[in-house]
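1st attempt posting a full record on here, be nice pls
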Amino acid sequence: MTLPYRWTLLCTLLASTGLHAAPLDYAACTDNILPGSLCAMHAVPASHEAQGQGAETLQLFVRKIPAKGPSKGSVWLVAGGPGESGASFYALLPTLRRTFPGFDLLIPDHRGTGYSSRLCPAEEAAGSPGGLALAGAEWASCFKELNTAPARARQYSISNAARDLRSLVGTTQGKSPVYVYGVSYGTQLVLRSLQLGALPVRGVILDSLVPPQNDLRWDLSQRSQVVNDVGLQVLAQCDADAACQALLGEPAQTLYRRVLDKLRQEPALLATIPGKNLKQFIGGMLDVPAARERIPYLLQDLDHGGGTELAAVRSLLNQAASSLGSYPQSSISIPLVGMISNSENNLRPGLTTADVDREEATLLMTSPLPRILLGGGLPTYFQDRYFGQLPASVPPVLVLQGSLDPKTPYAGAQAQVAALRQAGAGNITLAAIVRAPHFILWTAPACFEQSVQRFIADKPVQDCALPL
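the predicted structure (as tokens):
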């Protein structure tokens, strides 16, 4: 399809979906977090389906990183979560600038996060005891407020957030190309936005694509099973590697199980493990390639009763976390996480602590998420007509998926891509990032840069791999 025809078709589609918005009124940011950045607020209906005269509005915060020199176009960066703000991208701007040279980078905060309107305005205000995070007595008062006014809380649904994204993207209409990038939960949000109609974009990049929403195998309540599957692959790779086997002298699983038995018998050694939970600690190591590679060494050191390797791994994990930076907007909105996760991505709401205990007893690696979902205490909302559905047509899409992703597994991404194609969406490329975990932009920046640059240049994208 020629470019002029594509834009003519796009304009026709936009006219039919009513996707129009005035350009945002950007001004110099006052927080001095990123010198040279511009900031704007964008008003949206609190409930897009109930908008009208006198209806409540919310404010969405957007930070713009202008292109160096004349702008070639714009890229909207959609954060993960739910509950994460756009601040999760700030420390990654060098990679993003190299990947999208000449493009303006537009970074919104989801409703309920960062500087956008919050679920608990009093408790999540910059001047409150915990700042934008909840602290102390703010937890109880926030939860009480949400349960007292559940209708207001339910305005922070994924479908309303998807309409927010459509409204924001509509502010960048023009002749210059626009791309949308989403990561993790952000991919689910982008897909929900596309269900609502065409977007005026040249292409979409989905990093760590969520699995099909109605597939129990990869539901959030199954996160420990997903983590364990990836962890077993990592142990099997050690067994297949001559150097790793020379180090251990036995199958990795055999060593691991012996270490678990040792920790049960030696409370003092168990107390050195963060959270006193080795399964969960090693499950967290899978998110960081440098830490993941130390798993055999950690197991061997613990088997000998040592703590040197544990200290080194904790340092690696701390360095990885600090590499994402710390900003006033960085705190995750726990209420938003709980509400959207339990409403949209928990297919087993009746799960109990005993159920989780039983399921995790046979696993070697686990996640804290299934237990977090048990907490409750927050209003949920009914799944709407978009739940479990997919857009019938999409713009060109690039999916970047780690083959060792312990959060949104590679098999789940394959199933989602297959479902999109079956629903009628063509022109989707799934690129495996071999040996990469979650969040390719962060964990495999060279592969991200190479793959995305080829995509925006309309060149074929091949699989990529983290170096051994």
